[in-house]
Amino acid sequence: MANGETSPSSRSVLGTLALVFLAMVILSSADTFLARRERSENHAEAERLAAAGRMADPIHAVADFKSAISIERENPDYWLELGKAQLAAGQLSDAEATLTELLRRDSTSGAVNLALARVLVKEGRIADAVSAYHRAIYGHWDRGAEANRVDVRFELVNLLARQGSKEESLAELLPLLDMAPDDLELRKRLGHLFLAAGSAPRAGEIFRDILSSHPQDADAYAGLGESEFAGGNYQTAHTDFQTAANLRPSDEAIHGRLELSAEVLGLDPMRRGLSPEEQYRRSLKMLDLATAAITRCASLPSPLDSETIEEAQKAMENRSSPARLSDAVESNLNLAEQLWKIRQEQCKQAPTAEEEPLRLVLAKIAQ
User: Fold this and answer.
1) Whole-angstrom Cα distance, residue 46 to residue 82?
2) CATH homologous superfamily of domain 182-267?
3) Pick from 45, 80, 310, 321: most CB atoms within 10 A?
4) Does this model's pTM top 0.85?
């Protein structure tokens, strides 16, 4: 056989090897295709279950998301949705375990920390919840990071407000001032939250700033009125409420605040410019309201401080002479304050709307 020529047996071996290689390629391709198809079908089934879970009631949603996870165990979105469903279903310990497991994989996830914070709130673990909210604020978000951080901080502020933690609320509100200076609705929301946190001057600044560029905004005038009202500046508050009512005549809430401010102004005997006779008349009115508040409260123990009540009744029946009006005003206000103190300390019922003007005027006089 000449050099360089391939024998028939060699060609047969090469051909066989080529066929085997081709078969391996075909089988490998088939396996890859089938594996991809199976993964695609599994993903479609998992997504179908997850979609069903998003539409279901919490109990059924938990089952759907668990089924989706059994197919795609490493999908973090399904785990997060399972934790949220468990929270909605009241399965707090399960929700905490699910979300804690997720955080072991990624402790900086804003969405997962937010979900955990809500679970901790439901469990009454407020300090832990606040920490989780902070991790959510400073964590990473796959999309809409700034908007999510603002929303989370607002949610935290509302939680702190419900807990009566005014100083902590203020600390969380301050960073929000610079986050959306051109967002009108956000600034209004901030103004009301500063009011709730006990910072009426800061709220007033926000509403005045809004009015400098939106002078016809009824909400801003109403908010400014609330700021002045909280500071005891009832005349200024009344003017602001009146402007708001003029801009939005159909708003019952604004009209309610306008009426309350008018009642306070009409009851306060210490307003400037009142004659001695008008001061005396108003002090009698306050004494009458304080006595009515006592008699109205069914939960007060009996007998009450009858001496104080009798003294108040005599003061209302026996009118003072013009020469002693100033002393009578002071005496009437002291009696009204004593009666209101009894009402506050011994009456289990919350002050009524009818009693609110009296409460506010007495609080202002006591300052």
Assistant:
1) 13
2) Tetratricopeptide repeat domain (1.25.40.10)
3) 80
4) no
